[in-house]
Amino acid sequence: MNRKVVVTGMGAISPIGNSVAEFSASLKAGKSGVGPITLFDASEFDVQIAAEVKNFDPTRWIDKKDARKMARFTQFAVAAAAQALEQAGLVESRSADGGEEGKPRLACNPEKTGIVLGNGIGGWEVVEESFRKMITSGPRRMLPLTVPLMINNEAAGNISMIYGTKGPAFTQVTACASGTDALGQALDLIRSGRCDVVISGGTEAAIVPFAIGGFQMLKALSTKRNHEPEKASRPFDADRDGFVMGEGAGILILESEEHAKARGAKILAEFAGYGATADAYHITAPDPSGEGGARAIKAALEDAEVKPEEVQYYNAHGTSTEINDPTETKMIKIAFGEHAYKMKVSSTKSMTGHCIAGGGGLEAIACILAITEGFYPPTINLENPDPECDLDYVPNQVQYGTINVAASGSLGFGGHNGVVVFKRYY
Are 314 and 345 in contact (CB under 8 A)? Predict the structure, then answer.
């Protein structure tokens, strides 16, 4: 059917704000969400900083009893989904028809409502605690809910149970591309007619000893700026020394245009295109030629029926690692040609850190905010540009302008490349 797909709601839990409004204000202010790790004692680690979600109280959005049965990554997703569904006007109380008081229900057909979330790692804090109990006290002391708390699909499952969605409920796992690829899968579900509405995006909560230790051993994380954490994430800067682990969730409500218009919904943007490719090169490093990622950009633009020169803003994967940033610069140049030097490119990871699967959802929201609010998010900490990274990365301060088309790219371990394109809705 190839129906037009639009965005009607957004929700954000992030290191720089626990609502879309807070997230937007922080992007404009160039606010860093990076600080000392507080979620565990990191004193024995080379890496002692991360971009943690702050002042997060899950009971603002989730029943206290239910929240205790969710890992942190699931709580993030459910909270962001609650925000997004409220903005979209797709929830109402069950109390009006004699249902359970206070419980939400969908204001649309549940059988035509799906969920596609990206998650890379699952509930690692649960895995760690259960392993510790098993080793110190035996298997009978493990957490009874270890498995349903830890597995990646439980964020989608919990959202489905809370709101009563009965369409497909999928979880996409393509490492750091998971959130972006989840959005692409959701786009296809609506275009095909399988769903009218899809709750989609990404979520992650991997600031735990095992994850930080594992990425530290890969030499992937920044270790030189424990003393000045707000300056540690510095994409495209010659003095970068690795990424900063972040956490959070970005959730979008996607609908077919006719479904949104029929119910009088406010449409925020058109979700116009998606492209995905594989590098077939290396388990952790991107293809240094940039060819694989460039193909994903070209595929997304073609899918969106957008010419390269029509894109005003590109939200880069921009991890602040030695290998990613020059490779991604090549990728952008291959895909956009001379226009690469004319459009704005930035990495919001300079502020949020690398939220793994959560990044794809949050960065899609950044693109939509760029269109609807007319601003280019900055790349902060860009003080000494890498000569190999010679595009306009909106250094250090927000810039304002009219943006009609924005795109976002994500690259994942294993050679996964995903790109999404959003257009101003008229």
Answer: yes
Q: Residue 98's pLDDT is what?
A: 45
| Amino acid (1-letter code) at residue 181 | D
Q: Coil, strand or helix: which one is 231?
A: helix
- List, in order of start, the domains of the chain with CATH numbers: 5-269 (3.40.47.10), 273-423 (3.40.47.10)
User: Cα separation of 48 and 233, whole Å?
Assistant: 13
- Find how far residue 77's CA is from the centre of its chain: 10
Q: Which of 108, 176, 195, 367 is catalytic?
A: 176
| Euclidean distance between CA atoms 268 and 271, whole angstroms | 10
**Residue whose tokens read 């595009």:** 391
- CA dihedral 382→361→180→380, nearest 10 degrees, is 0
Beta strands in 107-258, from DSSP E residues, in sequence order: 113-118, 169-172, 197-205, 247-256
- 57-69: per-residue pLDDT in tens? 999 999 999 999 9
Average confidence (pLDDT) over 213-241: 97
Residue 92: what pLDDT? 84
Q: Is 108 a catalytic residue?
A: no
Burial class (CB in 10 A: 0-12, 13-18, 19+), 321: buried
105: pLDDT confidence band, cut at 50, 70 and 90?
Answer: confident
- pTM, to two decimals: 0.96
